[in-house]
Specification:
By secondary structure, the chain is α+β, with helices and mostly antiparallel strands. Helices cover 19% and strands 38% of the residues.
Length: 146
């Protein structure tokens, strides 16, 4: 995780739009090129968003497997999935969930076939969750195009 044992506010940078305007969210890129986005609070990352990120990040391989399991139930093509972003900010707010894993897909038959497609899997966390949902439960997914 970007050579960090824990995500800290100091590791995050303010997110900007293409026009250079601040979005209010904060982000960092992990060593494996996965981007993590957390909510902002005034001029800093929101403490609760950073805390949630630190509860999610150690379990991202498991959460990714849950996301892929859900997506593959609806896919006709076989291929490889790649985690691109973990969003605990804007996308999560828009989708009314706790966090979103954004993935891309490379089909076996044609690596370019899904080139402009992204898959957002929305997760919620429950206090009294069963073991399988302890770190987050996938509740829906959104397919979009860049």
């Amino acid at each position: 995780m970007n050579e960090l044992s824990e995500l800290t506010a100091g590791a995050l940078r303010a997110e900007r739009t293409r026009d250079g305007e601040l979005t209010g969210d904060w982000f960092c890129e992990l060593a494996d090129d996965v981007e993590v986005v957390v909510s902002g609070e005034g001029q800093a990352p929101a403490r609760d968003s950073v805390e949630l990120a630190n509860r999610v990040l150690p379990h991202r391989a498991y959460l990714l497997s849950r996301a892929v399991q859900l997506l593959e139930e609806f896919m006709r093509d076989k291929g490889a999935w790649q985690l691109v972003t973990i969003d605990l900010a804007r996308k999560a707010r828009q989708q009314e969930c706790d966090f979103v894993l954004s993935l891309v897909f490379e089909a076996e038959h044609d690596p370019q076939d899904y080139g402009y497609t992204y898959f957002d899997v929305c997760f919620v966390r429950y206090d009294n969750a069963p073991k399988s949902d302890l770190h987050g439960r996938p509740v829906k997914f959104v397919v979009g195009f860049h």
